[in-house]
Amino acid sequence: MALRNTGAEGRRSAVRSLVDASARLAPARLLPGGAQTQGGGITRTDAARLAARRAAMDALLVEPAEDPRVLPVTADDGNPVHVVERGPADGVPIVFIHGWACSNRVWNAQVNELSREHRVVCYDQRGHGRTPSGTAPASLDTLADDLDAVLRATVSPDAPAVIVGHSMGGMTVNAWASRHPEQVPVHGRAAMLVSTAADRLLNDFGVLPFPERLPGALALGRAAMGAPLSAVLLPEWGFHYVTMGGHATAAQVAFCREIVNACPARNRGRWGTAMSDLDLRAGLESLTVPTTVVVGTDDRLTPPVHARRMAEVLRETGRLERLVELAEVGHMVPVEAPFEVDAEIRRLAAL
E-strand spans in the chain? Predict the structure, then answer.
């Protein structure tokens, strides 16, 4: 279902109506990717619920009705960071960090829902969206320092934030906790690591069933991640297979593909190389706030084995809040399962 651009109030009302209808028709027992079945078939009631749910999810992808407040933030090396804020100034803050080859737009579904009650802060990571690459090395340490600068500029110790990172954004959170452990309890109320990894990224890779056992496979994987090739070269069906679950809607696939295609190939290659040799277990051990780990069971880029390993480390440190595995959902969890993601963020904000 397409929404016409009817102005801020019209868009807000249309989105709200669809989401409210979905909440009535699609109870929590309905899985993100499918409907309940009886005797191997889908009932008419379940089909209606699923259709309502899919329409509501698509509606959440529209650009937020509220114009953002652009916050002036500068990284430690002088590089400007594009940061936007929405929602009530006195709401519990939520800071969103997007993943590789994306931008802050990937959080539209969360912003549209959560900014009604929370102060929502999103920013473009270095070399993505409206944040330039700058001159600092393309490394997780650089991204960690950028996050620290954003938190210092936007989050008061008197009102710490729920810090949510997806994919490379989750790696940024772990790198920040490793480099700035003293800041974790100052700026963090809780954390949420979504579709991400802390180590062995190429060893446990689900796109192609080849790692480690194939001579030169890891070197090939590093080269592929660092290749400055246009994402447009990957056809829609290939993009869908690599990044999303089989039940993602056409609108969700198109939305994510548009965002990834907008990332310059050179920048995507630089940050792909930065992630290829990943070891952020120390960051997990320094993440001293309640932390939820979320993954889709059909995630091929960071398969569930990564989430389970991270959860085990957090369990050992006593900081694991929940491990959430979403059935039939791929790597783009914030887009594919917005209701589940938003509900868990609200729960963390209430701690």
Answer: 37-38, 41-42, 69-74, 80-86, 93-97, 119-123, 161-166, 188-194, 291-296, 320-326
Enter the tokens of residue 111. 């912003």
Band (pLDDT 50/70/90 cuts) for residue 148 is very high
Q: How far apart are the first and last CA of the chain?
A: 36
Query: In Å, how far from its chain's centre is CA 110?
Result: 10
- How far apart, in whole angstroms, are the C-alpha atoms of residue 35 and residue 166? 26
Domain parsing of the chain, residue ranges: 8-59, 70-204+257-349
Q: What is the mean pLDDT of the chain?
A: 86
Superfamily, domain 70-204+257-349: Alpha/Beta hydrolase fold, catalytic domain (3.40.50.1820)
Token pair in block for residue 228: 């400055």
Could you report the per-residue pLDDT of 57-71, keeping only the tens digit for each? 999 999 999 999 999
* The two structure tokens encoding residue 285: 């051990």
Gap between the Cα atoms of 85 and 113, Å rounded: 14
Q: Any bridge partners for residue 123, and if so which?
A: 83, 97
Report the C-alpha gap between 150 and 145 in whole angstroms.
9
Asked whether the beta carbons of 161 and 345 are under 8 A apart, the reply is no
Question: What is the C-alpha to C-alpha distance for residues 94 and 105, in angstroms, rounded to an integer?
Answer: 15
Residue 246, amino acid = G
CA nearest to 294, candidates 174, 195, 191: 195
Note the pLDDT tens digit of each residue in 105-135. 999 999 999 999 999 999 999 999 999 999 9
Q: What share of the chain is helix, strand, coil (3-state, %, to 5)?
A: 45, 15, 40
